[in-house]
Amino acid sequence: MAALSIFVDGLRLMVASGVTATERPKRRHAAALQTGATFGFFAAICVGLLSGCDKQEPLMVSGRVEADTIHIGSKIGGRVEKVSFDEGDQVKVGQPIVELEEDELRAQLAEAEAATSQSQAQLDLLQAGTRQEDILRAEAVVNAGRAELELRQKGFRDEEIREAAAQSASAASELDLTKKELERSQELFKSRTIQQSELDRARSAYETAKARTAAAAQREALMRSGSRPEEIDRAKAQLAQAEADLQRLRNGPRPEEIAAQRAAVAAAAANILRIHSQLDEMKILAPSDAIVETLDLRTGDLVKAGETVAVLNTLRAPYVRCYVPENRLAQVKPGQKVDVTIDSLAHEKLEGTVRRVASVAEFTPRNIQTQEKRSELVFETKVDVQDPKGVLRAGMYADVHIGR
């Protein structure tokens, strides 16, 4: 505004000195030249002042250093067998931080491998087809079943019936003899001629002969009457079953059976892979180079499935979260290079790059300050920082210099 006032006053002087109608033409020409020069001088001053007003001062905003954290754990859980690091230790990618006991899973793996071998052997057997020995054995069973059925249907031969009758008569004769021996032994025992043991032997012989006689008589009656209808039906059923088994062996396994066994082998192999995956979860590894932020476990502790056992601070790409006022937003663009300073390196600047600028404004956070008057609205901004010396730690305050 002061520049504009000076410019206006200059114009007034030029008009006063250059528009007098009574002056001579020569003096009028000189005044006109003086007026033009003065006008150009003041115009240049005005343009310079105005351009200086449009250029804004470099912006500095304060924020805090942050880093990505990783919450690690096991998907299945278990009992802690070994803890290899403490809080504050640095870990490399792939290093085991916590190891869980594997005994139970190792036993399951051995069982799964045995089941897979059994399923594979069964598949090989089906694919090889039926052995000739199995077919011959099945044919023998069929022939035996046919002979049994014919025997049941025809009944017993006369020779067999006569033999059974003779055995029945012999048993009856032996029964009669043992009965008489028993009676004599009883009389002798009464007269105290023989001992009790001799009487017991005579009685035992009689009972044995009696049972043998009854069995022989029953066998003779069975042969004379022939097989019962239900026995013949049972023989027919057994023959039919034997013939069906023989035909199945001759045809060999069906394609559906082979396919089903292949599926069983695949399922057993998948079970092995599942157990291997669970075994991998027994070692909780560092997914990247990091610093152990939180780890509170001891050998013997129980860890639940999906529970966080440690928090890692990666510090691979530390960044500063800061807030840019709305009226200075035009000075900040993603990809822009900026300088970052921290209190521990007061005389050294770290190189930073604007990662992103929020697309939605928010109210000014209380813990953020700038060197100029705060705006009502700010935009969250993330600035990636190059940290070759590894001095940045999460939570540190940092100043971001924009428009360097």
Kindly list the characteristics that best describe this protein.
elongated; about 400 residues; alpha+beta; disordered N terminus; single chain; 8 helices; OB fold (Dihydrolipoamide Acetyltransferase, E2P)
Short characterization:
By secondary structure, the protein is α+β, with helices and mostly antiparallel strands. The protein has helices spanning 2-18, 25-54, 103-128, 132-154, 158-190, 196-225, 229-251, 255-280; strands at 59-66, 69-73, 78-83, 90-91, 96-100, 283-285, 290-295, 302-303, 308-313, 319-325, 337-342, 345-357, 362-363, 377-385, 397-402.
Structure write-up:
The chain is of the alpha+beta class and 404 residues long. It is built from eight helices and 15 strands. β11 (337-342) and β12 (345-357) form a beta hairpin. α1 (2-18) runs antiparallel to α2 (25-54), α3 (103-128) runs antiparallel to α8 and α5 (158-190) packs antiparallel against α6. It starts with a helix and ends with a strand. The model is unreliable at 1-33 and 35-54 (pLDDT under 50).
